[in-house]
Amino acid sequence: MPHIPLESHLPGITGLLEYRKDTGQPIRELTEILLRGESTLTRAERELVATVVSNGNKCQFCSAAHAATVDMLLGESETANMVKADISTAPVSDKMKALLTIADKVRENGKLVSPAHIEAAKSAGATDLEIHDTVLIAALFCLYNRYVDGMATTMPADSGYFTMLADRLVNHGYYRLPQGYDHLKKD
Amino acid sequence: MPHINVDKDLPGIRSLMAFSPQTAGPMGELANLLLRSNDTLSMADRELIATHVSYLNDCFYCQHSHGAIAVCYLDGNTELVDQVRTGDANAPVSDKLKALLSIAASVQKGGKFVTPQQIETAKLLGATDNDIHDTVLIAAAFCMFNRYVDGLASNTPSDLSSYPLRAKQIAEKGYGNHIFSERQPVAESAEAK
């Protein structure tokens, strides 16, 4: 049961962003810019950063949501599954392996990112902006994961929920739905 | 040395915000909503939570920046801020704030470390749902800000005397892009030279 009264038809982060729409707005905007804005990293690559961090932080809701989003963007689930299991052997580019490794260090603590990690990413072709965005996405998901679990939000009862959520994130993005979320109420 | 090519004349998060002004916008807005409100939790209480979480994350720049801002709101009480920053149980703050600081410290470790007992204690001491919400989100937000600052190895001034000058700027004008787009504050004595 959540630590504060949240709408029962809105599991995970959605109930929190609706509970406080004022703070929800800049969080949504930051996410939209980082995960769906113009970038030399693909949307699937950026969602993989979110997935690795949420998985490492053991945040069940965020990990499932962003893995489902990667799956939908790529049309397969092997990549997200393998990245969650072991970055070094996952079917992603060397640049992505280096960036996902940086993300996983940021997750533990920013200070654990070493000049050698940065050098590895740069030699594999990563730009300063790609490194910046990777670190900030990883940091942002340290916010999300703690917000979602720190308020004890619920998991959806229906496992199909994440396919619906991934569809919304892929096709609509991170801004609040203009019509709100009342259509999700089951009565 | 920072991991990416940022303005060497700007410290900490200011240099990162200048590097990426587009993402700086919503981050400044979030900081204003969470830290510049006196709605049941005072601005001082909010900065104290941010300061303690930054200390637990071992982020030198953030713990001293937000500590100095808290000092501005607490009439120069550096001793109190230092006690809260380092988690001294004898810090002379309300029991409600102590309960909220304990929740923030659990969030820093990981959201799952917050127990129903901690929430119950905070509520018995008068914390509202909103206080609990803001405490958890401030703690979570500083787990982001701290990692952003340290994950890119941004410039961290080691001279503590520079922190109150920047703190005064934020205490007066709040957060936002002015903290990197306007001239950085310098001591009057340094300016006179």
What does this protein structure show overall?
Chain A has one domain (12-175): AhpD-like (Up-down Bundle), CATH 1.20.1290.10. Chain A is mostly helical and 187 residues long. Chain A has helices at residues 12-19, 21-36, 43-56, 60-74, 78-85, 94-108, 115-123, 128-150, 161-171. Chain B has a single domain, classed as AhpD-like (Up-down Bundle). The longest helix of chain B has 23 residues, at 129-151. The radius of gyration of chain B is 16 Å and the shape is globular. The chains are: A mainly alpha (187), B mainly alpha (193). Chains A and B meet through helix 2, helix 6 and helix 8 of A and helix 2, helix 6 and helix 8 of B.
**Percent strand of chain B:** under 5%
Total individual domains of chain A: 1
User: Which value, in Å, is the CA radius of gyration of chain A?
Assistant: 16 Å
Helix content of chain A: 55-70%
CATH fold-level label of chain A: AhpD-like
Tell me what portion of residues of chain A adopts beta-strand conformation.
Answer: under 5%
Oligomer: heterodimer
Q: How many DSSP-defined strands of chain B?
A: 0
Order of secondary-structure elements of chain B: HHHHHHHHHHH
Per CATH, the superfamily of chain B is AhpD-like
Shape of chain B: globular
In the CATH hierarchy, what is the superfamily of chain A? AhpD-like
The CATH architecture category of chain B equals: Up-down Bundle
